[in-house]
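Module 6 notes. Inverse folding takes a fixed backbone as the condition and produces residue identities as the prediction. Think of it as a translation problem where the source language is geometry and the target language is the twenty amino acids. Below is one complete input and output pair. Work through it position by position during the lab.
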C-alpha cells in the first residue's frame, strides 16, 4: 500500500492537512493526518495517554512544515477515530498495578502493551512508505517512540522526546494534585461535564500562566464532539502499567536523541526526562523553564527550533 493509493481527504480541522484511514496488517485501523511536501523528510508525531492527534497544536505542525518537513500525526489505537479495543476478562486493580509499577515489578492483564502500540507505528510507517522518518513523541507517545527506535532502528533517523519517561523504578511519582486530575472521574459524561473536567485537567498539568481558559474550553469541546471513548483512556493507562521499565531498552537506542522537559511539569517531574537522557547513549537533555506538561502557544516556536535543529545537525 502506498500513500498515493490511499484515499486522502481534506482535514475538517486544519486547512494544510489531509486525512485518511490506514488499515494495518495487525488489523488496527489508524486515523491519520498528513501535511507538507512528501519529498521532504518526514516527522511522525506520537501523542500521549488519552490524547487525540489534535492535541498536537496546528501551530506546531504548521511551523514544522514551514521548516521543510512533511508532518504525520495520528490517533493511537483506542482513541479519537482509530479502532477501539473491546476488553474482556475481569477488571484489574489499577492502584495495585500502579504500586507494583513504581517498584519496577511486572504487571499483566492489559489487552495490549506499549510494544503493541509501537508495532502500530512501525506498520504505519511501512503502509505510508515513509522515508527519512524522525519521531517526536510526547508523554506516553515518547515511551512508544523509545520502543520504536530500539526495535525498528532501520526505520528511524532521529528521536525527539517531550515530557516523557522510561518508567524505571524509583522515579519521583506525579504530584498528588496532578495525578488525581488525570485519573479522577468527571462529574458527568455529557459534553458539559467532560469539558469542565478537561479544563480542570489542562489547568492543573499545564504551564502556569499560559493556559488560556477560552481556548481550552473550545479545544475540549472539539475533542469531545470528535470522539469520546473513556474506556480507551483506561486501556492505554493499563498498557503503560503492563509495559514497565524501558531502561534496558533505552540502552539499545543508537539514533541521535534529544529529550525536552518542562521545569514546571508536575505530572512527570523533570527527573523522568533526565533519566531517559542518561539511559540513551549521547542523548541531549534540554529543560524548558516554566513549561508544564502541555504545548502552550508561547513555547511552540522554541520547541520547533529545538527539534528541527536536532534534525538539521544530522545533515553533513
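Target side of the pair, the amino acids:
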Amino acid at each position: 500500500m502506498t500513500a498515493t493509493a490511499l484515499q486522502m481527504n481534506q482535514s475538517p480541522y486544519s486547512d494544510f492537512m489531509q486525512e485518511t484511514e490506514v488499515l494495518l496488517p495487525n488489523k488496527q485501523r489508524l486515523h491519520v493526518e498528513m501535511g507538507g511536501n512528501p519529498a521532504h523528510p518526514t516527522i511522525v508525531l506520537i501523542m500521549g495517554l488519552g490524547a487525540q492527534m489534535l492535541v498536537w497544536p496546528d501551530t506546531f505542525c504548521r511551523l514544522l512544515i514551514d521548516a521543510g518537513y512533511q508532518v504525520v500525526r495520528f490517533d493511537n489505537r483506542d482513541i479519537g477515530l482509530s479502532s477501539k479495543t473491546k476488553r474482556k476478562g475481569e477488571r484489574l486493580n489499577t492502584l495495585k498495578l500502579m504500586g507494583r509499577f513504581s517498584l519496577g515489578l511486572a504487571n499483566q492483564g492489559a489487552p495490549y502493551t506499549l510494544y503493541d502500540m509501537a508495532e502500530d507505528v512501525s506498520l504505519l510507517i511501512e503502509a505510508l512508505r515513509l522515508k527519512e522518518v524522525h519521531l517526536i513523541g510526547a508523554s506516553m507517545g515518547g515511551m512508544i517512540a523509545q520502543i520504536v527506535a530500539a526495535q525498528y532502528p532501520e526505520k528511524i533517523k532521529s528521536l525527539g522526546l517531550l515530557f516523557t519517561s522510561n518508567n524505571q523504578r524509583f522515579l519521583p511519582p506525579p504530584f498528588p494534585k496532578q495525578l488525581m486530575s488525570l485519573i479522577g472521574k468527571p462529574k458527568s459524561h455529557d459534553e458539559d461535564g467532560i469539558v469542565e473536567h478537561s479544563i480542570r485537567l489542562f489547568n492543573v498539568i499545564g504551564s502556569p500562566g499560559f493556559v488560556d481558559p477560552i481556548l481550552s474550553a473550545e479545544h475540549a469541546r472539539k475533542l469531545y464532539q470528535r470522539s469520546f471513548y473513556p474506556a480507551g483512556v483506561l486501556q492505554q493507562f493499563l498498557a503503560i502499567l503492563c509495559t514497565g521499565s524501558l531502561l534496558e531498552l533505552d540502552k539499545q537506542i543508537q539514533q541521535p536523541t534529544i529529550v525536552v522537559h518542562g521545569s514546571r511539569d508536575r505530572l512527570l517531574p523533570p527527573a523522568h526526562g533526565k533519566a531517559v537522557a542518561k539511559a540513551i547513549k549521547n542523548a541531549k537533555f534540554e529543560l524548558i523553564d516554566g513549561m508544564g506538561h502541555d504545548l502552550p502557544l508561547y513555547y511552540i516556536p522554541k520547541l520547533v527550533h529545538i527539534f528541527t535543529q536536532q534534525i538539521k545537525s544530522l545533515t553533513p
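Reference fact for the lab report: The longest strand covers residues 29-35.
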